[in-house]
Amino acid sequence: PLASAYGLAKHRDGRWEWAIAPGVSPSPRYQHAAVFVNARLHVSGGALGGGRMVEDSSSVAVLDTAAGVWCDTKSVVTTPRTGRYSADAAGGDAAVELTRRCRHAAAAFGDLIFMYGGLRG
């Protein structure tokens, strides 16, 4: 798996140039999902080398493209609004358990991110 993030920057003369995202990137992963909310790229879930699931608070990584830095995600993920998901039944923090998956789909709508399906390790 790779841990690099690149973007294309368009120059005034119409040329495009690859630019690498600065800062410390999250753990290398594959089979993750990534969506934009405003200028922030949210990368959720995925698998590490050897097929292990991305665990704990590192299951969500956020790249602030306006500032050009990877954000501290300790306060990014909160518990579900519906109250239908039980952290006790999942054996841990509900927010982390909901993002601990791979091969899932994600979509952003306004300030919300929806995740659907996938696999758990």
UniProtKB/TrEMBL annotation:
Species classification: Eukaryota, Viridiplantae, Streptophyta, Embryophyta, Tracheophyta
Q: What is this protein called?
A: Uncharacterized protein
* Alphabetized Pfam families for the sequence: Kelch_2
Q: Which InterPro entries match?
A: Kelch-typ_b-propeller (IPR015915), Kelch_2 (IPR011498)
